Amino acid sequence: MIVAVRMRPLSKKEIEREEFEIIRVMDKKLVILMDPLELLNAKGTLGRNRSKEKQYAFDFAFDQDTPQKEIFENTTRHLVEGILEGYNATVFAYGATGAGKTYTMLGTESNPGNMFLTLQELFIKLKEQKNNYNYDIRVSFLEIYNEMIRDLIVVSDEVLDLREDKDKGITVAGLSEVEVDSPQDVMELLFFGNQNRTQEATGANETSSRSHAILQIIVEAKDKASGTTAEIAVGKLSLIDLAGSERAAKTNNRGIRMIEGANINRSLLSLGNCINALVDNMKKGSKNHIPYRDSKLTRLLKDSLGGNSRTVMIANISPGNDSYEDTHNTLKYANRAKNIKTSVKKNVHNVEYHVSKYTNIINQLKSEVSTL
Ligand code: ADP
Ligand code: MG
Predict the structure, then answer these.
(1) Cα-based torsion angle of the residue sequence 220, 223, 229, 233 in order, rounded to the nearest 10 degrees
(2) DSSP string covering 177-239
(3) Which of 22, 112, 159, 236 could bond to 107 as cystine, CB 3.0-4.6 Å?
(4) How far apart are CA 308 and CA 302, in angstroms?
(5) Ligand 1 within 6 A of CB of 9
(6) Is 102 labelled as part of a ligand binding site?
(7) How far apart are CA 23 and CA 55, in angstroms?
(8) Whose CA is nearest to atom 10 of ligand 1?
(9) Per residue in 89-103, pLDDT tens?
(10) So where does ATP get bound (predicted)?
(11) What's the Cα-to-Cα distance from 106 to each of 50, 82, 187, 222, 358, rounded to whole Å?
(12) Each residue of 267-303: b (16+ CB within 10 Å) or e?
């Protein structure tokens, strides 16, 4: 797993509150976390106490001035080619509420993030290859909120279920898949979908995001030269904006909020448990059971963590002293994830696989018609 850390700038509010920075990013790889109390004590006197600093090294560390494009180019761009060839990949943004996850993945309309930049790159690559291959691109966008899966593209209260399919792996039954033809199509879809996310006020943040949002891009590629016997490569890219990782204790949750808190922790906790078990197995060569089945998120991500997917984690952190605890936790979490290795293989299906899929659909429709 490639692990990157991104620090956002101090916000206006944090500057008004006279927060100070406790993070240094160095050499595009190192993150140094300083103890806020030590920094305060050292002001104007002895200089800071190095022994209280914590240092972490990552594949990439991005400071507050790093543009969206640079994040994309270093973390995600290299995955696009693989998707066209039938490999799976996953990129997820981790971090406390307000640390910059949504900014990194979705971004703003004037400054779009990883999701849009990925699709833009995909369309560029497709144009280059269109003489040799037929491509089909579909996207789906869902959220997991309170351990319930909802479609973000087709708005409905319906709760969707996970299915395990022999050929396709884990899928979400009834989830809409939309064919997209241009980056503009995608832009509208993303911002529309994001507005449909469940957001509620909590003690920690006015619009704390308590849901995990998952964009999946599925690309089917068929070599034009190979005629009707061709194999079809199916690549799947999952781009994930996780719910806030802050501890429930900090948010003064009560009642329903408390239940939600427990569920968010359940998915994130179980993500952490899976990461720990995987790291243990890799370091010690042990064969611990990986508890993927403990939450919806980890079931969906099963293939991405220890399995058949190139995986990137972008850990988002705030630079201010008030965020010390959250930032420390995020850095420890990301540091552990560095040890996970995945092994990828191409997903290829022959045309018969697709023909049989459509034959089934046609038979089903026929039987529906005959019962009318
Ligand atoms: P999260 O999704 O982790 O809760 P957001 O992405 O919503 O956090 O970020 C919180 C605020 O900080 C938003 O107003 C966002 O625009 C701003 N922000 C986050 N990251 C950056 C960045 N790298 N540069 C500038 N502003 C940022
Ligand atoms: Mg968010």
Answers:
(1) -30
(2) -EE--SHHHHHHHHHHHHHTS-EE--SS-TTEE-SEEEEEEEEEEEEGGGGGG-EEEEEEEEE
(3) 112
(4) 9
(5) yes
(6) yes
(7) 10
(8) 98
(9) 999 999 999 999 999
(10) 95-102
(11) 37, 22, 9, 30, 34
(12) bbbbbbbbbbbbbebeeeeeeeebebebbbbbbbbbb
If you measure from the C-alpha of residue 90 to the centroid of ligand 2, how many angstroms do you get, rounded to a whole number? 18
- Taking the centre of ligand 1 as the mean of its atom positions, its distance from the CA of residue 198, in whole angstroms, is 18
Mean pLDDT, the chain, rounded, equals: 85
Query: At residue 223, what is the residue type?
Result: D
DSSP 3-state of 167? coil
pTM (2 decimals)? 0.88
Q: What single DSSP character describes residue 320?
A: B
228 is in an annotated binding site: no
CA distances for 14 relative to 8, 11, 20, 103, angstroms? 12, 5, 8, 17
DSSP 97-142: TTSSHHHHHTB-SSSB-HHHHHHHHHHHHHHHHTTTEEEEEEEEEE
Residue 193 assigned to a binding site: no
State the distance from the centre of ligand 1 to the C-alpha of 242, rounded, in angstroms: 14
State residue 286's pLDDT score: 82
Determine the length of the chain. Answer: 372
Tell me the CA–centroid distance for residue 316 and ligand 1, in Å.
9
Q: Is 107 close to ligand 1, i.e. is its CB under 6 Å away?
A: no
Amino acid sitting at position 229:
T
> What distance in Å separates the CA atoms of residue 193 and residue 216, rounded to the nearest whole number?
13
Residue from 6, 7, 8 whose mutation best tests the ligand 1 pocket (most atoms within 8 A of CB): 8
CA angle 147, 152, 156 (to 5 degrees): 85
Any idea which ligand is nearest the CA of 94?
1
Question: Where are any strands of DSSP class E within 286-327?
Answer: 310-317
